[in-house]
Amino acid sequence: MAEGDRKERIHMQQKGKHNSTLTPRARELRKNMTTHENHLWYDFLRNYPVKIMRQKVIGTFIADFYCAKANLVIEIDGGHHFTEEVQKYDSEREQIMQNLEIKTIRYTNDDIDNNFDAVCIDIDTHIKNRTR
């Protein structure tokens, strides 16, 4: 990504502008969620007592899951999130979310596969702590 594009994206995000051009992409991602996103959605988040949206456009980003009441983004990180470039992007994105008072919590595919109950408990704890 060009430095100018990155700075414009950060500027737009800090101003809180919604990039409506991402809406079709978000719809596509909802229809084609990963196996791990599907598992978390259908087996926990979908019927959670507080509304949680999937593939939600927030500014210039698309969050895997978003709970507006708790100002909480939930991300499921696949293998590509461990490259240096993607980690830098994730770090910048997380800083922008923090500036908007949105907390981001991240889980790996391995967490979903091997510690699903613990992931659900952790998400529940974060939501309850942020909605008191």
Radius of gyration (Å): 15 Å
**Which consecutive residue ranges, at least 5 long each, have pLDDT under 50?**
1-15
Beta strands, count = 4
Question: What strand order characterises the main sheet?
Answer: 1-2-3-4
**CATH overall fold name:** Endonuclease, Chain A
The termini sit apart by: 39 Å
Which structural class do you get from the secondary structure elements?
alpha+beta
Outline, from the CA principal axes?
Answer: globular
Describe what is shown at a glance:
By secondary structure, the chain is of the alpha+beta class. The chain has 6 helices and 4 strands, in the order H-H-H-E-E-E-H-E-H-H.
Describe this structure in words.
- There is one protein chain.
- This protein has 132 residues and is of the alpha+beta class.
- The chain has one domain (3-130): 3-Layer(aba) Sandwich (Endonuclease, Chain A).
- Helices cover 52% and strands 19% of the residues.
- It is built from 6 helices and 4 strands, in the order αααβββαβαα.
- The protein has a 4-stranded mixed sheet, sandwiched between helices.
- Strand 1 (53-58) and strand 2 form a beta hairpin.
- The chain is globular, with a radius of gyration of 15 Å.
- The N and C termini lie far apart (39 Å).
SSE layout and pairing:
Elements: H1 3-14, H2 23-31, H3 35-45, E1 53-58, E2 61-67, E3 72-77, H4 84-99, E4 103-108, H5 109-114, H6 116-130
Parallel strand pairs: 3-4
Antiparallel strand pairs: 1-2, 2-3
